[in-house]
TrEMBL record:
Lineage of the species this protein comes from: Bacteria, Bacillati, Actinomycetota, Actinomycetes, Propionibacteriales
Similarity section: Belongs to the ABC transporter superfamily.
Cytoplasm found in the keyword field: no
Name under which the protein is recorded: ABC-2 type transport system ATP-binding protein
Organism: Nocardioides aurantiacus
Keyword flag Acyltransferase: no
PROSITE patterns: ABC_TRANSPORTER_1, ABC_TRANSPORTER_2
Entry-linked InterPro entries: AAA+_ATPase, ABC_transporter-like_ATP-bd, ABC_transporter-like_CS, P-loop_NTPase
CDD domains: ABC_DR_subfamily_A (cd03230)
PANTHER family membership: ABC TRANSPORTER, ABC TRANSPORTER, ATP-BINDING PROTEIN
Length: 228
């Protein structure tokens, strides 16, 4: 992705960002709310078109073929994405049918158990807490083992066991050669999950750093300075 710009009316939500996500690696988009993280992820997922710039996912131009991009990616949105009157199992069943997956049930059960959702697999999601909804969104994104995994704020409101399961999903995706992007404002968790981070502020990239440069107290000071 080179020179991504996204404009909503008179507001430039993203201003000329360059992002390269490599196979088998994980990259974090770090920054405060309003930094442009979620907008960037929505473009990469084929949800919204770029205003300008060159954006490809696995060799497919997002603006020209967003439906193919949606098939290639696994996307956990920052909010929403679940059907309130459907159960987790029904969500997975629909995903399997849409993607024509065979023999999907064992993987579905394994993911639900790993994220401690096995006991509520047949409850409608309208009664789920925010953390439970976040965990299910990660499950749905990773379910079909996509070549590009996009996780937007996957740690928001999630308990330690859910965080651990999400980190395992990222590690599994990297091990099978997927490119992973994780957007979050939680620096320490981003560094556990990812090799490097793009720090965004006001819709623009202010730095690209390796995970080691953002670790510990020194990394915290560097991050605070970049955010202004």
């Amino acid at each position: 992705m080179r020179g991504l710009w996204v404009r909503f009316g008179e507001v430039d939500a993203v201003q000329g960002i360059d992002v390269t996500a490599h196979a088998g690696r994980a990259t974090a988009l770090l920054g405060r709310n309003g930094a442009g993280k979620s907008t960037t992820m929505r473009v990469l997922a084929g949800v919204i078109p770029p205003t300008a710039g060159h954006v490809q996912v696995d060799g497919v131009e997002v603006a020209a073929d967003p439906m193919t991009v949606k098939r290639l990616t696994g996307y956990c949105p920052d909010v929403g994405g679940l059907v309130p009157r459907a159960t987790p199992w029904e969500h997975l069943q629909l995903s399997a049918r849409l993607r024509r997956l065979d023999g999907w049930e064992p993987r579905a059960r394994d993911l639900l158990e790993r994220f401690e959702l096995g006991g509520v697999a047949h409850r409608v999601t309208s009664g789920f807490s925010h953390g439970m909804s976040r965990r299910l969104s990660v499950v749905l994104a990773a379910f079909h083992e996509p070549g590009v995994l996009l996780l937007d704020e996957p740690f928001d409101g999630v308990d330690p066991l859910g965080v651990e399961a999400t980190l395992d999903v990222v590690a599994d995706a990297r091990a099978r050669g997927a490119a992973v992007l994780v957007s979050t404002h939680l620096r320490e968790l981003a560094m556990q999950a990812c090799d490097q981070a793009l720090v965004l502020r006001g819709g623009a990239r202010v730095a690209t750093l390796d995970s080691g440069e953002l670790g510990g107290e020194r990394g915290a000071e560097t991050y605070r300075a970049l955010l202004g």
